[in-house]
Write a structure and sequence with these properties.
Radius of gyration: 14 Å
Structural class: alpha+beta
Number of domains: 1
Largest sheet: 3 strands, antiparallel
Order of helices and strands: EEEH
CATH architecture: 2-Layer Sandwich
Oligomer: single chain
CATH topology: Double Stranded RNA Binding Domain
Number of strands: 3
């Protein structure tokens, strides 16, 4: 089984924090690549006991500008 996730990465102090929007799984790394590798492992563990095919509704990500 494979799942496709929408990922947001933010720099927080000395770490890059990666979060999957579909399931809320979060991981971190010193580099963006490390954060993505760690998140991939965390997501695999999250779905480890899932036996059946999981379906997801698509998530749409956009930006919003607000005058302040």
């Amino acid at each position: 089984m494979s799942v496709k996730c929408t990922v947001v990465i933010q720099k927080e102090e000395n770490w890059y924090v990666a979060k999957s929007l579909e399931n809320g799984v979060v991981s971190q790394g010193i580099t963006i690549d490390e954060a993505m590798i760690n998140l991939s492992e965390a997501i695999a563990l999250y779905y480890e006991d899932t036996k059946e095919e999981t379906t997801f509704e698509p998530i749409f990500v956009t930006t919003l500008e607000v005058a302040i």
